[in-house]
Amino acid sequence: MGVNIPGSIVFGLFSFALCHSLACATAGDDSETWVYFGTHGDYIYNARFNLQDGSFSTLQKAAKVVRPTWFVQDPSGHHLYSVSEVGNNGDVNGQVVAFSMDHESGALTELNRVESGGSGPTNMVYGHNSLVVANYGGGQVAVVPLSADGRVQPVSSVLADFGTGPSPRQTQAHAHSITLVKNTHDLLVPDLGADRVFMYRLNDKPEQLTQGATPFVQMEPGTGPRGIEFLKDGRHGFLLSELSAQVRCLTWQPESKTLRYGDSVDTFPPGFTGPKSASSMKIGANEKFLYVADRSTDTLVVYRIERGGCLEPIQRISSGGQYPWELSMAPGGHWLVVANLKSDNVTSFKIDNQSGKLAPSGFEAQIPEPVFAHFARVGKD
Q1: Spatial distance between the Cα atoms of 363 and 56, rounded to a whole number of angstroms
Q2: Is the separation of the CB atoms in 133 and 157 below 8 Å?
Q3: Which residue among 118, 194, 201, 291 is least crowded, i.e. fewest CB within 10 A of its CB?
Q4: What is the dihedral of CA 133, 172, 269, 248, to 10 degrees?
């Protein structure tokens, strides 16, 4: 169902970010932070992000990885892990690459790499001393153990999703993302190809996957589930469907270890008849608003989170580029960063935490085929 939202705010002329050089940035400077960019190309890029005005420093190549489309850090903050998303057609296995991080210089030093346990790794989460990887190409979900020095070890466990859907993109299972349910060992895997959310359990000694008490929850045919975001309570959240371009409210039920679906909203505007595609969502820091990228119209949609009535759309605004792929929230929750794949740029938006609305900063970073932005976190030993 669509709701008529006032017209888009035209994204203004961008300035290529020159305001802060790397020389003036220090690890202790809380006005700036390192951000690492994933791409469909051959490199991880990084820059300093200014938390005051939303600008980016001069871009640099941080590491060479083929299709580094997703990153996670370990709790210590000393290591960054990247997928190498090759094999989406199922012909070869992808990889997971381990790096040590220098928070002063932003440098990444490769430690080692291993196969991802399937083809086309597109997403992963940090588990209990391991990484759990969603392999889109073949629908495999795999566990990659971590050694004490942060290196990745050969895959210890693999389970495979199954199922098909009515879309030409749904001829087999395609595990798209992984969510670790708060304070549990339960994993939720939205599968775009099967129109299902699969449920697994991660056992940590040894690192093995088992099927959940409920193996999967079925979605409507052709919706193509892509990702899940939970509120801080770990029970209430949202499921984004790529192919139908919808967000559905959901509730995790810990007693039965399953999901209950609620109402849904469209990410495309009323009357839109073109191909539909939604790609990413992030919950605002105060949990009052949800931000969603709609690739159908190259826009961002802001929803007010209504405790009793799911979601109310309040703004639609240009993403500042073409084909917004992934949204990222900067530390502090005051900035939203958007990777626009087809226009080769990353844009930033100021978040008004009172109204929830977005305003373009006027700054961008020019990056070949960007799909992800990860803000470096300094953890605790």
Answers
A1: 7
A2: no
A3: 201
A4: -60
User: CA 250, CA 223: separation in Å to the nearest integer?
Assistant: 15
CB 239 within 8 A of CB 190: yes
CB 143 within 8 A of CB 209: yes
Burial class (CB in 10 A: 0-12, 13-18, 19+), 169: middle
How far is the C-alpha of 46 from the C-alpha of 35, rounded, in Å?
Answer: 6
Closest by CA to 68, choosing from 29, 34, 94, is 94
Do the bridges between strand 246-253 and strand 236-241 make them parallel or antiparallel, or are there none, so unpaired? Answer: antiparallel
Residue 20's pLDDT is 35
Q: What is the pLDDT of residue 205?
A: 77
Give the span between the Cα atoms of 157 and 306, in whole angstroms.
40
- Cα separations in angstroms, 348 against 2, 304, 365, 373: 26, 20, 9, 11
Planar angle of CA 117, 120, 125, nearest 5 degrees: 65
Determine the Cα–Cα distance for residues 71 and 374; give it in Å rounded to an integer. Answer: 7
Residue among 249, 243, 244 nearest 264 (CA): 249
Q: What is the pLDDT of residue 310?
A: 86
Distance CA 84, CA 119 (A): 10
Separation between Cα atoms, residue 93 and residue 84, nearest integer Å: 9
Q: What separation, in Å, do the N-terminal and C-terminal C-alpha atoms of the chain show?
A: 48
Q: How confident is the chain (381 residues) per 10-residue block, as mean pLDDT? A: 38 34 43 97 98 97 98 96 94 96 96 98 95 97 97 98 98 98 96 98 90 96 98 96 98 95 96 97 97 98 88 97 98 97 98 97 98 87 50
| pTM, full prediction | 0.91
Other CB atoms within 10 A of residue 377 CB? 16
Partners of residue 248 on adjacent β-strands: 239, 264
Mark residue 138 as left, alpha or beta (left: phi above 0; alpha: psi -120 to 50; beta: remaining).
alpha
